[in-house]
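Hi support team,

I've been running sequence recovery on a batch of backbones for a student project. Most finish fine, but this one hangs at about 90% for roughly twenty minutes before it completes. I'm not sure whether the input is malformed or the queue is just slow. I've pasted the structure tokens below so you can try to reproduce it. Let me know if you need the job ID as well.

Thanks,
M.K.
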């Protein structure tokens, strides 16, 4: 009976370690806002993966987001942050740019 408890405890510890490690392998992606105004800022088609573009140049003017870095799907992020100010004020903002 004592050995059974040790085996069960060992299994529980292994499962917990595996479960916690599943949360630490989170991948993030960077997206660049392609437009020059806040029109359609919450539309997924207004954003492009940074890896698909040359190095982005951002002015850091705080008018529009330029680059964001997120670990959730872009559509989910934009649903919760659907204005320029809410994106700029979010955890995901990397850089900003001027509007035209």
């Amino acid at each position: 009976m004592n050995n059974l408890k040790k085996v069960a405890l060992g299994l529980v510890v292994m499962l917990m370690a595996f479960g916690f490690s599943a949360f630490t392998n989170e991948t993030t992606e960077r997206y660049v806002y392609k437009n020059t105004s806040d029109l359609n800022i919450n539309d997924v088609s207004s954003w492009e993966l940074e890896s698909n573009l040359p190095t982005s140049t951002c002015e850091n003017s705080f008018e529009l987001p330029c680059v964001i870095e997120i670990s959730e799907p872009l559509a989910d992020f934009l649903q919760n942050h659907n204005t320029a100010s809410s994106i700029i004020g979010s955890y995901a903002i990397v850089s900003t740019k001027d509007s035209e």
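--
Follow-up from support: It reproduced on our side and the slowdown came from queue contention, not your input. Residues 29-97 form one domain. No action needed from you.
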